[in-house]
Batch of 2 targets.
Target 1
Amino acid sequence: SQTIHQWPATLVQPVGSPLSLECTVEGTSNPNLYWYRQAAGRGLQLLFYSVGIGQISSEVPQNLSASRPQDRQFILSSKKLLLSDSGFYLCAWNLRTGGRSPLHFGNGTRLTVT
Amino acid sequence: AQSVTQLGSHVSVSEGALVLLRCNYSSSVPPYLFWYVQYPNQGLQLLLKYTSAATLVKGINGFEAEFKKSETSFHLTKPSAHMSDAAEYFCAVTPGNTPLVFGKGTRLSVIA
């Protein structure tokens, strides 16, 4: 069966520090991969998605970047965190079968920028 | 572009009462629709999905949703609420060739 791992679960970082969140998927090949951010009362905001190694689409211009160095690995990064980067970050995957394939989510990372 | 509106950011029901969470969508083509549930500090879990087959979709934990094209709605229902249903619920839509777009969520409280 497929599993998705996301870490760390919680993170407290000072303003101006770098960020690296990692997500890996097991049990499937060639998944689509996604990073979402969740802020209270604002639902889920799609940040990045990837349909293959090295292929990254950015939905919102901001202080973050994403990379996909391996087929089942997706990394969210920042060179210098801002207070507004605080939130709950969720990684997700689905199959490349079009819209009928549901997203499967990791357990999230709670990021607090102080 | 597709969008989702969830009416009511917070819904409160008594244990054993009907649960009704509303979702209206906008899509230029026949959509795929999903409902997800999120418990505190966890990721989202798929409840059910509509992918152009039966318009009444049954999901996990006794939930179901009905796709109504004429009303552009996909409301989530459960006949009898249980305390364990207290969580946040998200409706999502995609036309099929772009990532899911989520509503802002509805927090369900269940009162004993």
Target 2
Amino acid sequence: EDQVTQSPEALRLQEGESSSLNCSYTVSGLRGLFWYRQDPGKGPEFLFTLYSAGEEKEKERLKATLTKKESFLHITAPKPEDSATYLCAVQGYTGANNLFFGTGTRLTVIP
Amino acid sequence: GAVVSQHPSRVICKSGTSVKIECRSLDFQATTMFWYRQFPKKSLMLMATSNEGSKATYEQGVEKDKFLINHASLTLSTLTVTSAHPEDSSFYICSARDFSGEQYFGPGTRLTVT
């Protein structure tokens, strides 16, 4: 059965304090691993898709990496506007290729 | 990036009434649309998957007669919560997948049943 575990559940950072969010996954054949950002009361906003171990993608202060067991979302010198919940989801080759989500990491960046 | 809209963004209804939520892909055609439900501080739970012109596929535990899904075109899907009860109060999010396989989410609809 597909499983996604995100840690930590919540993270408070000072502005400029870099850190990483973890997404550990178990899936029978990884089709893709997705990172989304979700603001309170809003739908998830697409950030990255990673398809194979060793792949990395960057966007502004965010960088996502992927291994065969986990993905990291690195946040470099975060700003208060980076405060949000970051969701990780996996898509396997079984079933209807649906996304299976983790519970997210709630990030707060303090000015 | 691709845009998915939902309407309404918030709705309050009385117990026993039905509520319809629309989901549209504004600048792309969606091969598949998805409906999720999200409880406070919880992750998204997939309710159903639908393809244009076909009956929706519901996840285990989701009542298909209560949550009616109509996928009328490649850009429109609707979710109707029938005979709503307070326990149906939740945040409902739709998503649309384009032909390249990328999946985009709508802004969500907050349903409150009184």
